[in-house]
Amino acid sequence: MGKICLEGLEFYAYHGFYEEEQKIGNKYEINIEVDADFNDGAVNDDLIGTISYEDLYRIIKKEMEIKSKLLEHVGYRIIKKIFKLHPAVEKVRLEVVKFNPPIGGICRKAKIVLDETNDTIALKDSVLNNIEDDHFGLPKFNELSIDDN
What we know:
Blueprint: E1 2-13, H1 19-24, E2 26-36, H2 39-44, H3 53-64, H4 71-85, E3 89-99, E4 109-117, H5 118-130
Antiparallel strand pairs: 1-2, 2-3, 3-4
Helix pairs in contact: 3-4
């Protein structure tokens, strides 16, 4: 068992809850740790026995190109794709960092961190696919106003 880490991957992408964010874009950073058994690669000096850094980068790049409102959603898609394409992966820890988020004040960066195993991703997908009312009768965030009590 080992860990493959890629740190400081930079992207310019169009994620954000507000329409303006999805038009002008922003700078993002991805940090990822992938736990997998890559003993074959270590022993045999062969890429087939491990997870390619380049492949991880391509997965992340492709998912970063898809506009999303939430960083959590971007991270979830990246992790889900890694598990789908690399069954040997046992755990993924992913950080999605957004620089200068529009929060109405000074903030150098906002970050979400996801720690998932293949089992937790499968369970979440199963649960979400079985829920008919995803808000349990509560108003969605964008349906709320500041004046609501």
